[in-house]
Amino acid sequence: MKFKIALLLAGIIWGCLFLIKLQYHRRTTLRVLQNHDNSLQYIFETLPQNTQKRPHILFIVADDLGFNDVGYHGSEIKTPNIDKLALSGVRLENYYVQPVCTPTRGQLLSGRYQIHTGLHWVLWPSTRSGLPLDNPTIADKLRAAGYSTHMIGKWHLGFYKPDFLPINRGFDTFFGFLSGHSDYYTHETGNWWGKFMTGYDLMDNDQPANITRYNGSYSTHLFASKAKDIIWGHNYEKPMFIYLSFQAVHAPLQVPENYMKQYANITDIKRRQFAGMVTCMDDAIGSIVDALKKRELWKDTLLIFSTDNGANPNAGGSNWPLKGAKGSYWEGGIRAVGFVYSLLLKMKNGYVSKSLMHVTDWFPTLLNLAKGDLNGTKMLDGYNQWKTIK
């Protein structure tokens, strides 16, 4: 027990040191950017100053996706839809997250480091904690700015009281699961050695979903279907924010057989299963983009793709050539796969951004694009990075 406590304290201290170092480098980088802003934008046109249209925002998070798990980074895994979007958009190649899921998600939604939220590590199901209620989420602020707000997929930010549920944290609708992972088909959790929580984990807003309806539905397909339902039912008069937090490609390694067969050449069974899961998620993303195009919303949509942390090599992922993995503060644990795509960027070609960016930056960046305000928000750790993206 003493060893575990010492290990936990060491991790917290190491994380705090990382954030201090990150903040120093971020401030230094921002000063450089202020002096060389034009050099980062020579290939892009800026949005018209008099435009009143605010973009629809589709924010996609992949779970445990590694640096070497996407085609455009040279992986053997096929991700044609992700590749097309990334290579035609802005690839964020100096973009960082936290080493595990809960801290990253908390910082994404709050714009504040875990030293403020208390979410330093994975939030276990029985924990009497969650994303603090004393500060609005990005969904709260976007809804206040006139957006319809929707969340699909993994929450993992606390649910021990109703106040902590997504539906009470700024989202108009929620369909997904509350804990860290579950069975992709049965949606049953209980992978924590039976000590914390067992049972079905699938919610429809603030109520358990009809499990007889969804039992057997592969979560990647299910969550993509829910996203398309929202797109087809959206009111044209309002801008839309969809936070799509895939279960994929977190363990357990489960995938429809037709995807696994595509990688018969991969001898490592875990890597083969993982590769199929990634390609399945890629197809799901492609189908969502197609729905946005058919609904005539794509031209006004900003798509952001991010992983929550590095891959777990023991579950088929790869962070090569980066050192480290999920759970570590080496590059392999915190340097994220990320990109931005939108026709609103009016780019002639894709672009690689080497500007330093952190997951906390999305809060002020998106709120700026939404023409929202920071009223009632505590001091943010993130910076508005739109100038370095466009």
CATH top-level class: Alpha Beta
Q: What is the tally of beta strands?
A: 14
> What is the name of the CATH superfamily?
Alkaline Phosphatase, subunit A
Give the averaged pLDDT, no decimals: 88
Number of helices: 13
Radius of gyration: 20 Å
The CATH level-2 architecture is identified as 3-Layer(aba) Sandwich
The major pleated sheet works out as: 10 strands, mixed
Describe the structure in your own words.
This protein has 390 residues and is of the alpha/beta class. It has one domain (2-44, 55-389): Alkaline Phosphatase, subunit A (3-Layer(aba) Sandwich), CATH 3.40.720. The protein contains 13 helices and 14 strands. The strands form 3 sheets. It has a 10-stranded mixed sheet with strand order 9-8-5-4-10-1-11-12-2-13, with helices on both faces. A two-stranded parallel sheet has the order 3-14. It has a two-stranded antiparallel ribbon with strand order 6-7. A hairpin with a 2-residue loop joins strand 8 (203-204) and strand 9 (207-208). Helix 8 runs parallel beside helix 10. It starts with a helix and ends with a helix.
